Amino acid sequence: MARAVVFDQLGGPEVLRVEDRPVPEPGPGEVRIRVDAIGLNRAEAMFRAGTYFEQPVLPGSGMGYEAAGVVETAVEGFPEGTEISTMASFSMREYGVYGDRVVVPASSLVRRTVDEVTGAAVWLTYQTAYGALVERGGLRPGDPVLLTAASSGVGLAAIQIANHFGAVPIAVTRTSAKRDQLLAAGAAHVVTLDSQDLVEEVRAFTGGEGARLTFDSVGGPGVVDLVEATAVGGLLIEYGWVAGKPPLPMNWNRQVTVFGYGNVSYLQRDPARRRRSEHFINAGLRLGTLRPAVDRVFDDLSDIVEAHRHLESNAQVGKVVVRVRH
């Protein structure tokens, strides 16, 4: 038997449970992996709560994009025993990695050259940040880059990528509690929303111009201020809506382009972009210029409810990872 995390109704972390299921058998184009660690993402909490862009199939829905483990059923390019990570290239309505032995599309695999905890914390965060900032945003040396939710896994990845390109990462966080950690992570400047005015701070730091590129996962009414903090003719990339779907910001004077970014649709479905992202991330891991920040590692699938509560506490800096014991 295999263990799987499932839920039968929408709700908070408490709806998650671990159940025994028959060991899944892969079909054409699929592969079974033994999961050793799972990387948690805000997308999964939203999927569980029913606020994600796609809805789960209930009852008995699984979930999860990121896992690190070992191939159990060989497929082309990945012999049995190959150490792998999974990338977020599938729908959670069809596949999920919250389990100890799971089936995923063979196309979601990437060879793993790091330990399982690191391997479960890399691909969604860094591909999201790379795809948006580099492929879509055309990131250049010297560009001021405004990053909301900067202490999240994607936010910290974006800080590292911005520094790698010689850009200037400006981190946004709700309170001053994470200021020092964000500066230590490489932020050139930190804006704390509880005590500072976002627009004034960003414009002052950038000599009155604003950020050429703004990367936002929060959404909601705060997007209006983000437009004001973005340079005239700049680009605002929206990749999430933790605070709700954003209004369409109308400020013709700033001429800001707003782009909705989806990792699967923009990066994973374009072979050239995906290939470039893999080379970039693997090179960064080898050289040490990309270092996934892991906030906390939980011990096993039985800790999944507590892990989701921690994920939604907003107290973390970096990724939340759950090991899978066998």
Can you walk through the features of this model?
The protein has 326 residues and is of the alpha/beta class. It has 2 domains: 2-122 and 292-323, Medium-chain alcohol dehydrogenases, catalytic domain (Quinone Oxidoreductase, Chain A, domain 1, Alpha-Beta Complex); 128-265, NAD(P)-binding Rossmann-like Domain (Rossmann fold). The chain contains 10 helices and 15 strands. It has helices at residues 42-49, 116-119, 123-136, 153-164, 179-184, 198-205, 223-229, 263-268, 271-287, 304-311, and strands at 2-6, 17-21, 30-40, 66-71, 83-86, 101-105, 109-111, 144-147, 168-173, 189-192, 211-216, 230-238, 257-260, 294-298, 319-323. Strands 3, 4, 5, 6, 7, 14 and 15 form a 7-stranded mixed sheet that branches. A 6-stranded parallel sheet has the order 10-9-8-11-12-13. A two-stranded antiparallel sheet has the order 1-2. Helix 3 crosses helix 4, helix 3 packs across helix 9 and helix 6 runs parallel beside helix 7 (223-229). The chain is globular and about 60 Å long. The protein starts with a strand and ends with a strand. The model has no long low-confidence stretch (mean pLDDT 95).
| Helix and strand pattern | EEEHEEEEHHEHEHEHEHEEHHEHE
Kindly provide the radius of gyration, computed on alpha-carbon positions and rounded to a whole number of angstroms. 19 Å
Helix content: 25-40%
| Count of all domains | 2
DSSP E strands, number: 15
Q: What gap, in angstroms, lies between the N and C termini?
A: 12 Å
Poorly predicted residue ranges: none
Structural class label: alpha/beta
Report the total helices: 10
> How can the largest sheet be summarized?
7 strands, mixed
| CATH fold type of the largest domain | Quinone Oxidoreductase, Chain A, domain 1
CATH architecture grouping of the largest domain: Alpha-Beta Complex
Give the percentage of residues in beta strands. Answer: 25-35%
CATH level-4 homologous superfamily of the largest domain: Medium-chain alcohol dehydrogenases, catalytic domain
What's the CATH first level of the largest domain? Alpha Beta
In one word, what is the shape? globular
- Average pLDDT for all residues: 95
